[in-house]
Amino acid sequence: MNYITTFFKKNVLANNVVILFVMTIAGMLLSVFVKGENIIDLINYHYYLGYSFVSGDTDRYLALGGPNGFLNPILEVPIYLYITYFNDYPDIIYALQGIWYGVALFFLFKIITLFVEPKSVKNSLFILLCLILATTRQAIWIQIGTSTNEIPMLCLDLCGLYIILRTLKFPERQNFKDFILAGLIMGIALGLKMTSSHVCISAGLMLILCRNSLKISYKNICLFALAGFIGFILINGFFMYKLWILYGNPFFPFLNNIFKSEYAPPIPFRDTSMIFRFYYPLFPLFFYFIKDPLRSGEITDYFFGFSYAVLAFYILWAIWKKCTKKTKPDENLINALAVFLILDWFSGMYMFGILRYFVVYCALTSFFVPYLFFKIYQKYNSKMALSCLFIFLLYALLYNPFFYLGVVFRHNLKQYIAIEKINIPDNALVKLYGNCTSFLVPFLAQNSTFKAVPYHHLCLGLKVCGFFGKGEDFIEKYKFKEEREKIVNAHTGPVIYFFDTEKMNLPEEISGEENFDEEKKLIERSFFLKMIPIEKYKDMIGFLELKKMNLYKETVEDLKNNYYCRQIKTNIENRIDICVPRELKRQILKDDY
Predict the structure, then answer these.
(1) What are the pLDDT digits (tens) for 302-353?
(2) Sheet holding 495-500: strands in order across?
């Protein structure tokens, strides 16, 4: 603890405190201005996980929230508390969520100043350009102030990388404590959210590959790795132990091909909707010639591909210089950063291939690419290099902020999450059909005590969990179904139904309208992207038609004859329907509409 205190006393002087404060306020204001939220993830599992952790509610172990309902809930606590106390003041929630990005900007600033000191107006404007460019990268822009939790990972990972790069800048002053602190911070990030794994792996490999040029000892590399492991266990060990005791898989349901829990199929639950191909490095703009790659909705950030192309050429040039022994000592640090970035691109693409997980890559390439042009301009007084910088600035200021609509921008909200008042009777059984229904539980639990069980929690990725075998998700086939049936069979009170209507294709006679078929869309999309062969496609479509006929076979008549069904009032984009016993209609629902 004394070392950590000393570290910050030595490195955060008065001017840095001011900069941190200004950037934090900037992050808060930007979040309030954008008002973005990936609402699907929020109502699918983020909000419910925060509630389950704070309240000690064990219903989450019946798979409310689907596969993602078993992730570490610590990161979800803030958004749950914000909604609990500031739901009537959405701007306060956005401001608080924006703190993460403000602090991330500060650490990005500190990394940039390792290479470009803000001692002149020209240098200061360049740093500002890089910060603006980073802010408006698509992967970052669509997540500022949202509950997706990639921005907190950006903050922690940039902090760890700054400590590493700072100590590598002066090899003669390397301190093993810096490696321990950096490893601990990045290990904590990994424990909070496993999507940081590619950043941690890349940082470790970068230290190994650059060991000789930067005079890094094996001892410091091992201490970095050990501290990372300790940080990971400190923040995630308890939840891994709990998952192991309950399900026999510390990463449940992920990596179930290894641990083979009886609660889920023996598959890794890895999203392979964007499969890595080895020829991608040769054609970095290939991503923009196929539909919906990198799972971003619509890729408009062409800088993502361009930055990789520049990075690849730089790596080849750096290797040539090293082989010809022309590398200068002052180039070692930028070369190390380039090595980290190329490793992060490969590892991130191989492990996930999802654009919004590349926040660290996008932030750092927003400095790395302009820095190369900046150095060319300084060395050759090149007007072309200066023109490229100007184009980058225009692109940063205009493109994603004004033309990208791939995220829900939620303006004119009176409440962050608005739901009509529903009075669930005590001792009721709440049946939740579809993905985006678990968020109802914390609201409903404010005034009553009930049991909640999930049905047909479909996965938004064919090879994650939704369509293995003949298409059953793990709630409908494995041990979760047995446990759910025990609860249902033992229940003697009233039963309330909630349907994520669009995902569940609720029958027209119940919902009052023909609903959009989400499953069919996913199958057709995957077939279009050549993720499944035509034989499998036909089998899935045939099974889907069979499923639609049998899904509500046992309940549809009961709902038609004994229940009152209608859409509930809410300010989310998903339509949620409720079905209540007719005799309890006035007690549960305030009015009709």
Answers:
(1) 788 778 888 989 999 999 988 888 888 888 999 999 999 999 998 888 887 7
(2) 450-455, 428-433, 495-500, 576-581, 563-567
